[in-house]
TrEMBL record:
<dbReference type="GO" id="GO:0071500">
    <property type="term" value="P:cellular response to nitrosative stress"/>
</dbReference>
<feature type="domain" description="FAD-binding FR-type">
    <location>
        <begin position="109"/>
        <end position="222"/>
    </location>
</feature>
<dbReference type="InterPro" id="IPR009050">
    <property type="entry name" value="Globin-like_sf"/>
</dbReference>
<keyword id="KW-0274">FAD</keyword>
<dbReference type="GO" id="GO:0020037">
    <property type="term" value="F:heme binding"/>
</dbReference>
<dbReference type="InterPro" id="IPR001433">
    <property type="entry name" value="OxRdtase_FAD/NAD-bd"/>
</dbReference>
<dbReference type="InterPro" id="IPR012292">
    <property type="entry name" value="Globin/Proto"/>
</dbReference>
<keyword id="KW-0216">Detoxification</keyword>
<dbReference type="GO" id="GO:0046210">
    <property type="term" value="P:nitric oxide catabolic process"/>
</dbReference>
<keyword id="KW-0349">Heme</keyword>
<dbReference type="GO" id="GO:0071949">
    <property type="term" value="F:FAD binding"/>
</dbReference>
<protein>
    <recommendedName>
        <fullName>FAD-binding FR-type domain-containing protein</fullName>
    </recommendedName>
</protein>
<keyword id="KW-0408">Iron</keyword>
<dbReference type="GO" id="GO:0046872">
    <property type="term" value="F:metal ion binding"/>
</dbReference>
<dbReference type="InterPro" id="IPR017938">
    <property type="entry name" value="Riboflavin_synthase-like_b-brl"/>
</dbReference>
<dbReference type="InterPro" id="IPR039261">
    <property type="entry name" value="FNR_nucleotide-bd"/>
</dbReference>
<dbReference type="InterPro" id="IPR017927">
    <property type="entry name" value="FAD-bd_FR_type"/>
</dbReference>
Length: 327
């Protein structure tokens, strides 16, 4: 079902109004939808709703879609018809892509039960959680850098909540690992924006059950590509989680591949000893770490003091291929 030329013009004509008032429209849309269908609380990230992030994201998708629809003029009953038609076309496109992704996951559809095998404190307020499948079946591989959705029950709120966490180890057949940070951000509408992370750290223990989706995501290193090109991994804070997955995968499968590891942290550095150990066994790994506060007890001082600054990284520690006119 395609839009007519007149319908496309109507859509395009409403872009200025959507730019000015779109976030309010999508905020009201979500509010009414959750009021009429409270069961959807199990599926939406309520922290992102409270902060306005989700309404803004939906509006950005709609505006981007509308901006590519073409031309101008006309209004009212036809406008509603045109936008209804355009919106459902977009919805079908997104649902079709989602179905395509699910088909690629094979037999693992939806959520699968996992048991927390152990939790390891990697640094202050940073924990790695090892998760094993309850059914005992081998786990599918994934591309290092990808994530899983983790769903937990929130009995006090009467619904589930899901959050996305990067996998933080090289692919294994018997477990997945995520690395998460305790959050302390408060919000007047949604009491604790770190509700799922904090629950996993503070309330869930060994043997507890959580639910995971199949690994997914477009941010990854393609390990099927036999390239030996150098890699630069730059991260800060909990953003190191997908990077440590990439580092572990490459060091295991391509031990001669040049890697630059550049990381910044306020205080304690997660995986500090692991990265140093990998550096000793991987001759082509160059490590630069930055720290804005003194190291914690028993932690080896990092190379650089202050915020992450590439100007302080020796050129010999960067593996760069540069190609272009005038270089």
């Amino acid at each position: 079902m395609a839009l007519s030329y007149q319908e496309a013009k109507l859509i395009h004509d409403t872009i200025p109004a959507l730019t000015d008032h779109g976030e309010r429209i999508t905020t009201i849309l979500y509010r009414r939808m959750l009021r009429d269908h409270p069961e959807l609380n199990d599926h939406f990230n309520l922290a992102n709703l409270a902060s306005g992030r989700m309404p803004r994201a939906l509006m950005a998708v709609i505006l981007n879609y509308a901006s590519n629809i073409n031309n101008i003029t006309e209004l009212i009953p036809k406008l509603e018809h045109a936008w209804t038609k355009a919106y459902w076309m977009l919805a079908r496109m997104l649902a079709g892509r989602e179905s395509q992704l699910y088909r690629s996951f094979g037999r693992w559809q939806g959520y699968r039960q996992f048991k927390i095998e152990k939790k390891v404190e990697e640094a202050q307020n940073v924990y790695s959680i090892y998760l094993v499948p309850v059914d005992g079946q081998p786990l599918p591989t994934f591309m290092p850098g990808q994530y899983v959705s983790v769903r937990v029950d929130l009995p006090a709120k009467g619904h589930h909540q899901s959050r996305q966490y990067s996998l933080s180890d090289a692919p294994q057949q018997d477990y997945y690992r995520i690395t998460i940070k305790r959050a302390g951000i408060k919000d007047h509408e949604f009491r604790n924006l770190g509700v799922v992370s904090n629950l996993l750290i503070d309330e869930k223990g060994n043997g507890d059950i959580v639910q995971l989706t199949h690994p997914a995501g477009d941010f990854f290193l393609d390990m099927d590509n036999p390239s030996n090109e150098p890699i630069i991994l730059i991260s800060a804070g909990i953003g190191l989680a997908p990077m440590i997955s990439i580092l572990n995968a490459v060091s295991q499968r391509s031990p001669s591949r040049p890697i630059s590891w550049i990381y910044g942290s306020h205080r304690d550095i997660p995986f500090h000893e692991h990265v140093r150990c990998t550096e000793r066994s991987h001759p082509n790994l160059r490590v630069n770490m930055f720290q804005t506060q003194p190291a914690g007890p028993g932690q080896v001082c990092t190379i650089h003091r202050g915020r992450l600054n590439l100007a302080k990284v020796r050129s010999a520690d960067l593996w760069l291929d540069i190609c272009g006119h005038g270089v």
